[in-house]
Amino acid sequence: MSDVQPPASTTTSPADTGLAGGVIGGDWPARAADSVERVVDSVRSKTTGPAIVISRVLVYGLVGVVLGIIALVLLLIALMRVLDSYLPQGVWLPDVIVGGLLGVAGLFSWRKRRPASL
Fold this sequence. Notes:
By secondary structure, this protein is mainly α. Helices cover 75% and strands 0% of the residues. It has helices spanning 14-17, 20-24, 28-86, 93-112.
């Protein structure tokens, strides 16, 4: 009676029964998670990436334009003060000089415009 072996275990694994674990492989949850992550990363790079670039261009462009306008105004104020200090006591002469410069800049801009197409 010592030669009798105990019966084999009656529990079976999914791989033995032919269920999903045996057909796909034992690591299907990890592969499914990797696939989902890959798809989400792909969608994110195609949508969020360009949106971030566009928003950065808009924000930095707007900040640059505002700072440029501020610098131009401060430059004009400094020019007026310098002209008032160094020109003879004529009150109108600095106004004529700065007005002439701004008028020339306006005429140049007006000439470079494109006419509206009809």
